[in-house]
Amino acid sequence: MSDKFRFPAEWEPQSAVLIAWPHPETDWGPRLVDVEETYIALVAAITSFEDAVICIADDDLQTYAEARLRSARVDMSRVRFVTVEYDDTWLRDSGPITLRSNDGSGFRQLDFRFTGWGGKFEASRDDRLVEALTAEGLFPNGERHEIDFALEGGAIETDGAGTLLTTWRCLHERHPQATREQLGAKLAGWLAQDRVLWLERGYLEGDDTDAHIDTLARFAAPDAIVYQACDDIADTHYDELQAMAAELSQLRTREGKPYRLFALPWSRPIFDDGRRLAASYANFLIVNGAVLMPSYGDVADARAQEVMAEAFPGRAIVPVPCRPLIWQNGSLHCITMQVPAGALG
Q1: The pTM is what?
Q2: Which end of the chain is more exposed for a tag (fewer CB within 10 A), N or C?
């Protein structure tokens, strides 16, 4: 690990959660009414525990978003707006990956290339988002580091102590000429890690990220992993997610022990015009004192909440309705990016 900076785990203290408000020019346009309800519920949940920083495209959108949030009785003293351009609202992948100095005095906002998940979608404005936020003075205690390498925040997961968890499928898709050793060395260097754990298996239908780790398996503690399981032998995901579970059982902590594993339930298939949607409970967000959990209006929601409570003792588990989000192939974690405590101005 770097002797100057470290990559904090998501459960460490945060200043705020960063999101971008949907508007008609984003991909949410055709179903804006539904997705706005999710965003309102999300901001209400975030501000129950910490601040929310909301990217907005212009003053009119801020006026509108503020009115919607006030009508929902959101604590506006915990809401901050910042005006920037963006193509869409997947800030987990276009937002800053923040490192913290070991002495806590400074921060480094890593600005990787965002290519619209390997060129699948237009992303030129999203690729400039970290630069725009820095120019707006959002990170006065940090320095922006531009890195000419395609990497999304949803593709990586850290335990805050030097171990990175990721998937070979995603990183290989972005960088097909690089070996595992080359990719691991680059990630370890940029992200101040000394171990990279790779998963070979695991995917979700309807996911266009090429198997982001944050839809599959997440650290709950340095010795614990929460993962999306599938117990329906008739489901097309069964073999792949069973194989992923077996892989996870073979991983070892820094001390050489098996990880404590928490299996999340499998929701019934959700379709939209015949298209299977990626409903993963692993796409949760950790905030100060709580875990915000995606809910899908499925009978499995209740069991998912129980598993989260087991994995995160002492934290409130707050369901957020996310069915509208999976229409665009992502969920709760995908539209958010946490900012470590002290990193905001």
Answers
A1: 0.97
A2: C
Report the DSSP beta bridge partners of residue 51. 16
Q: Looking at this protein, which amino acid is placed at residue 291?
A: V
Domain ranges in the chain are 5-340
Assigned fold of 5-340: L-arginine/glycine Amidinotransferase; Chain A (3.75.10)
Reduce the DSSP state of residue 325 to 3 states and report it: helix
Helix (H/G/I), strand (E/B), else coil: 292: strand
* 282, 225 contact by CB (below 8 A): no
β-strand pairing of 163-167 with 156-158: antiparallel
Which phi and psi (to 5°) does residue 46 adopt?
A: -60, -50
Q: Which long-range contacts (CB under 8 A, 24 or more apart) does 300-303 make?
A: 300/265, 300/266, 300/267, 300/268, 301/267, 303/265
β-partners of residue 173 are: none
pLDDT digits (tens, 9 = 90+) for 299-321: 999 999 999 999 999 999 999 99
Q: How far apart are CA 186 and CA 63, in angstroms?
A: 43
Q: In 128-284, at which residue ranges do the beta strands (DSSP E only) sit?
A: 142-150, 156-158, 163-167, 195-199, 217-221, 224-228, 260-264, 271-272, 275-276
Question: Per DSSP, what are the bridge partners of residue 83?
Answer: 56
List, by residue number, the catalytic residues: 334
**Which of 11, 25, 48, 42 has the alpha carbon at shortest distance from 334?**
42
